[in-house]
């Protein structure tokens, strides 16, 4: 049996590429995005009552990782990228059907122009197509005692993050500098580098596209140093 | 943007019609079903490691309620069927995309002939097409403090359930009689009648198709009386 899904909305997020996105929702509360409903779904009645919920499920498409061929196993970054598990035992984007599922904080419902949801703790690429929104119903969805396989707990290591004078200067020049600083801190303190390089440090400069800039940083002696917010890409 | 999903598996459950199915997963742990993976997805590698998890997300299609036209609002049974909320503020099966989402207990992974998952707390119709399986990751998915809108808690009222001598006799004639008795008790003590009839009682006999029989019961003075397991439909 085959079914066709239609995109009902689109994500506008600061994440312009896959590297650096938190690997699960909720890890970085400062990661805020909006979900814009598309016509004909952009009707205020369709979200009536949603503001009574603190969290929502977003069902989306992994639009950048769709593949012709599915593979029965994947290598989760959480396991260092060198152990394989079944695709159905993972939340990997490389799946038979490219369906994603993330719970997010619902920070606001705006119906002044079309319909927009303001979401927190986002782990989605800019431009992600959304196929459904459902309320998070805690008495059904929350199972605190569930057994968690190979990912039993949130990553605990939080690295201290400092900004170079150059990065500080670039942040001060932005109207949204304070918010961007907190986002950068949230993203880098959980160390977006692949787990198998967790202990490797040194001169290597990492970069990720964020908002309208290219964020550059390195990790030295267990600390993150934010080098610059390079312009233009 | 449109995407085509393929069915990866099929649910075999005791529920042969919509009436009487628990309105959320987990409410009736005795409701057990199997999920059979379909070719080419029925490969043991695809579920390797899944048995480390106690619960799974099942993403499925509401195959019996697909409609040509979507409606921006729905009337949830939980609100007595007479108040409307936005379709995206509900878990109603009548949605723009017919995607369902249920968390279930993973009771077993069987790979002897094809691949079958044994699921508990099921709220799915027999024959439901499944489009994805994901592990339940408690540190991400479990948010006990989430605010729950119009469905803040599980239904608390549990009705006492008694079986007439005829129903007892019919249960004793079945090899699976004990299991079926516990399933019936679990299903009826949470009162599957629509909320707007909650206080109405009397002579009316209700029926639901379950396994290979037609279950008949009534509610008298706050007690459920199981009348018979009528044969053949």
From TrEMBL, chains A, B:
Stored Pfam families: TrmO_C, TrmO_N
GO MF annotation terms: tRNA (L-threonylcarbamoyladenosine(37)-C2) methyltransferase activity
Domain TsaA-like span(s) in chain numbering: 5-145
InterPro entries: TrmO-like_N, TrmO_C, UPF0066_cons_site, YaeB-like, YaeB-like_sf, YaeB_N_sf
Gene3D superfamilies: YaeB-like
Family: Belongs to the tRNA methyltransferase O family.
Protein name: tRNA (N6-threonylcarbamoyladenosine(37)-N6)-methyltransferase TrmO
């Amino acid at each position: 049996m085959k079914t066709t899904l239609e995109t009902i909305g689109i994500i506008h997020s600061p994440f312009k590429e896959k590297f650096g996105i938190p690997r699960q929702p909720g890890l970085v509360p400062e990661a805020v995005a909006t979900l814009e409903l598309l016509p004909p779904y952009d009707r205020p009645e369709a979200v009536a009552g949603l503001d009574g919920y603190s969290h929502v499920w977003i069902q989306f498409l992994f639009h950048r990782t769709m593949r012709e061929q599915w593979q029965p196993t994947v290598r989760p970054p959480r396991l260092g990228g060198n152990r394989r598990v079944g695709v159905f035992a993972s939340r990997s984007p490389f799946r038979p059907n490219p369906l994603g599922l993330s719970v997010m904080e619902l920070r606001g419902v705006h119906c002044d122009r079309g319909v927009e949801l303001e979401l927190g703790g986002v782990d989605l690429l800019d431009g992600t197509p959304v196929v459904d929104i459902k309320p998070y119903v805690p008495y059904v969805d929350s199972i605190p005692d569930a057994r968690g396989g190979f990912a039993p707990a949130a990553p605990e290591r939080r690295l201290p993050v400092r900004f170079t004078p150059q990065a500080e200067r670039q942040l001060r020049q932005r109207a949204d500098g304070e918010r961007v600083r907190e986002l950068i801190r949230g993203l880098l303190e959980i160390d977006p580098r692949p787990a198998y390089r967790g202990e490797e440090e040194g001169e290597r400069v990492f970069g990720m596209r964020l908002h309208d800039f290219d964020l550059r940083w390195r990790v030295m002696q267990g600390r993150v140093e934010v080098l610059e917010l390079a312009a233009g890409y």
